[in-house]
Input
Amino acid sequence: MPEGVMKAWLESSHLSGGNTAYIEELYESYLDNSQSVSAEWREVFQQLPKIEGADVEYHHSAVREEFRELAKQGHKTVVVSSGGDAKQVKVLQLINAFRFRGHQNANLDPLGIWQREKVRDLQLSHHDLSENDFDKEFNVGSFAVGQDTMKLGDLYKALQKTYVGSIGAEYMHITSTGEKRWLQSRLESVQSQAKLTVDEKEEVLKGLIAADGLEKYLGAKFPGAKRFSLEGGDALIPMLKEIITRAGSHGTKEVVVGMAHRGRLNVLVNVMGKNPNKLFDEFAGKTDEALGSGDVKYHQGYSSDFVTPGGNVHLALAFNPSHLEIVNPVVMGSVRARQDRRGCDQGDLVLPVTIHGDSAIAGQGVVQETFNMSQARAFKVGGTIRIVVNNQVGFTTSKQEDTRSGEYCTDIAKMVQAPILHVNGDDPEAVILATQVALDYRNTFKRDVVIDLVCYRRHGHNEADEPNATQPIMYQKVKKHPTPRQLYADKLNAEGSISAAKSKELTEYYRKLLDEGQCTVEQWRPMTEHSVDWTPYLGHDWDDAYEASLSMEKIKALAESISSYPESHPVQSRVKKIYDDRVKMAKGEKLLDWGFAENLAYASIVDDGQRVRITGQDSGRGTFFHRHAVLHNQEDASQYVPLQNIREGQGPFDVHDSVLSEVSVLAFEYGYTTAEPAGLTIWEAQFGDFANCAQVVFDQFISSGEQKWGRLCGLTMLLPHGYEGQGPEHSSARLERYLQLCADHNMQVCIPSTPAQVFNMLRRQVVRPMRRPLVVMSPKSLLRHPLAVSSLEELASGVFHNVIGEVDKDIKAEKVERVVFCSGKVYYELLEQRRKNEQKNVAIIRVEQLYPFPEAEFAKELEQYQHVKQFVWCQEEPQNQGAWYCSQHHFRAMLPEGTYLTYAGRKPSAAPAVGYMSVHVKEQQALVNEALTVE
Output
């Protein structure tokens, strides 16, 4: 196309704002198939400048931006021409090159170790430009400098300051033009330079003095002691204080922080306001042994208040085990609970901040899971600020090819299109700007954002390590490298902001505070009523009296309420049959099945004004088609939830089909319950076997959190368990693992066998004031077993029976020669086989709560069998699994003198169950027969 024709065509209305979407669509089609557009458009697209080394999406994004600008500017801008007009296009492409790839040549590494090739796209020559063009004026498109045109020389300097200085911004992977424009405006308008007053600079310096001063003090006072120092990443302290201060100024009331052990002691003292004397006592070994087993000092959490221009902000640092990143979903759960309590739907009032290591964020899968949760309905918290303390080495692994497969440790964040701000930790003012931009982005768009604080680790993994053994080059540089405090103090002195004498005075003052054991955080305040009151839940025992009974009138009213739905809401035929049966159950015309009794428990709790929250991969319907708490309209897919429509002013009922994860979802719900003691919070495994993917949460939080940290938790876990011949991964919830973790009355392990039992077990978890975790081996086949039914009267009693004795009236105690103890589904198989055998000399006792072992109830049931010599424990699980090894000592301690206890069940096995139905049936029949055989 001749130049004149091309120019005339481009000056036509085709590029007006109203046609932007049409042009973008044409370009999309061209990328998919060049022959799909007309020859005229194909020629235009073919002549568009190409950026070497970029993929198709890079080209597409850049060109889409160009079209938007062209649409705004109309005929004033020419896309393809010769001479000056051609260079105009090159200038616009230069701007996009810096936006896309400037971070790759940014000055990020304080040690200068990173060896990064020069990006050709950032060179003038690559765009057919040179210094000879520096005095020429060009249109700068969307470059956010407040003017339409600039001299190329000024533009090039501005681009370098903005994108290849101490901040390397990655955001062009974001698909939202609005978000990209917002980030461009924030960075380009100030050329990535923070505008701080002298007072603000002094605050930053004081943060660096505190970070450096505490580490030096501890190093001198407790030489060789592990403290996992922050040295090298000192800018984390002013960064956190800036986040809290700025968040509070914008109305945030709580900030919850999660981090591993690197720099934790520094954060505790210099951000949270922990008294340094308490920390010194911990180093000296002075502890209160009455508080439980305790934990090492660099795993401890803390709470305090922090004054800001917008009022006090409540701070909470989550307790954290050594499983590094597992704290992230715990923090998010805690934040969601606090937001729910405040009625905060957007996340404005409670802010989550998670602090990661560079190797950990790239290496641990729970990070991907929490990113994936970040916008899911059940788990969103309005965005998390994620800080990476990137000291360029993980334990002793420092080579990029050994720690990750991507260019940056933060590449994982791109999966949710989070912007990533890489920043040089030795430039604290750049750190502050990155912090401000990150917080404002989170508050504006309610999405995750990442700050990659590129720094170093002055010592080894801990202070007893010798890092030169594995990182000799790095540590030769570290040894000679000045501290961030020294670098910044020298800079402020040179520019005349803060004199060297003033810096020394501030340093000496901080040392004085440590010597006197005074709080080092000026903004610290004693805690006020920011958090929930746990007082009503403290100091209770298992046997404390509680009242959970309900009147029959109330039970029937609730039953009728949750068994109805609008006629205008057609449901699937099988679901309709279930609800038709529930109407009969509500009227007392039919005994209650498991699903209806469970839903009635939830109804009774929300009717009392309390919250019920349930998450799991199939929790709305129920994995085994039993719950149907959410009814799906078969015509328009709308949803109706009977439990949300009981009465005005009821408590919230939230049931969510969760993301396909166990570890992150369970950790989230643990965090939720540690911040919210009221109501009922449930995590449900799709199959109980799958909970092994979340074993770290059981081990490090649920079973031991109270002993280590004094953290109460009332989380309920439903783990479907039972041997129905479905193979080794769909049978056992690994009951033995939870029983092995039981000690110090740390949690409950129950196996309810009737609908009334599950109803009263769930109500007990809420009504009883004690808050401890509840692990439930929930059923599968029992959900519809004809014998596993209950009456409304049994539900109304309000009693969960820890032990259920013999129920068949024709079994006379004095005739009994053998007593079988069991739990769960196998009871019904024993019962049916005994009835089939017409045996009258065998009694069956169900143990519904295996821990804490119900000694009193068990002893009472045994009173009538003191003459019996044969006692047997029957279980479905292999002998090395299930309850046998962990609970037999409890049974034996209760038996009459001169008697013995034997085992009836599967033989020991490496696998939880067999995979062949024929073998399963044979084994199941054999263990039932063995249990019932009187010797």
About this structure: Residues 1-18, 51-59, 73-82 have pLDDT under 50 and may be disordered. The two ends are 102 Å apart (CA to CA). Residues 3-155 form one domain. DSSP finds 32 helices and 25 strands in the chain.
